Amino acid sequence: MTADIAEAARVLSDATDVTLLAHVNPDADALGSALALGLVLHRRGVAVRVSFGAPDEVPETLRDLDVAGLLVPAAEVPAAPPVLVALDTGSVGRLGPLADRVSTAGVVVVLDHHVSNPRFGHVNVVDDEAEATAVVVLRLLDELGVELDEPVARCIYAGLVTDTRSFRHASSSTHEVAARLLAAGVDAEAVSRPLMDSHPFGYLGMLAKVLGRACLERDAAGGLGLVHAVVTLEDAAGLRPEEVESVVDLVRTASEAEVAAVLKELRPSHWSVSLRAVSRVDVREVAQLLGGGGHRLAAGFTATGPADRVLADLRTALTRTTTP
Ligand code: 5GP
Ligand code: MN
């Protein structure tokens, strides 16, 4: 691990042109990590671009992190980048339409915290005990001898506060990391509120519809219980991806269910499914059975077809994972 960080620092110190990629539908950890490292390299005179394969729009809540204008559309990512850094990307496929750059790039550096990462780079800094990729990036910045300032610290904090669910899943050393970020000038409430606690009024109407149709299946998941909800394109019309992504945080509060699932319609009959567990079911295993991945208590997969069939496949995978 230490040797990998030193090697990643060496590659980036020698680079003059660096492309940083987040996974598709980037969250605050993926994009915050990419922008923190990108900003540091940009200030050192490196030609830097930050991008992701899909969708075309940058999530509104993450735009303010890009203080140096480093974000470019996927179409502007070079066909063969000299140095490519993939962040928070547990597998090549999670780069979506930009996945081919892994084979055309000169050097690929992987910075991640997914246990299932196949280490698809030439240099791989993968720590599955890190609560966020942002923690891995901060270690790399320390290796590079970077002095933290507010814009960089804010990007790291955004990844950390979201992936740890407001520091619920953070070790004591990660709380110390948070203290460092606050000391560098981060305003915790100003960063967190737009990311987690602020939605347009239309969100409430969408929730009323979607949560009103939610189902509890007490016998599913080997009797541990499954709660699920479906967000169709019609439900989500006029709202941002941020509103749709946060539905699972409400569905998961149903105390009768160990596992929560939210089916989010991307295109007609194309679904991105979010899975969450309280503590006893490894939803990464479930997601992997269905072609996805993630972490033990937060994972996901994509699926096509009618929602009922996606749910039937999910029940089967849950039974396989929870039956001894
Ligand atoms: P979310 O439900 O917030 O979209 O994703 C939770 C976690 O599951 C993410 O951090 C990511 O690790 C993983 N994940 C979500 N969707 C997919 C997917 O389609 N494929 C893979 N491999 N992992 C996913
Ligand atoms: Mn992450």
TrEMBL record:
Residues 236-309 form the DHHA1 domain. It comes from the Bacteria. Pfam families: DHH, DHHA1. GO terms for molecular function: nucleic acid binding. Residues 18-159 form the DDH domain. InterPro entries: DDH_dom (IPR001667), DHH_sf (IPR038763), DHHA1_dom (IPR003156), Oligoribo/pAp-PDE_c-di-AMP_PDE (IPR051319). PANTHER family: BIFUNCTIONAL OLIGORIBONUCLEASE AND PAP PHOSPHATASE NRNA. This is Bifunctional oligoribonuclease/PAP phosphatase NrnA. It comes from Saccharothrix syringae (Nocardiopsis syringae).
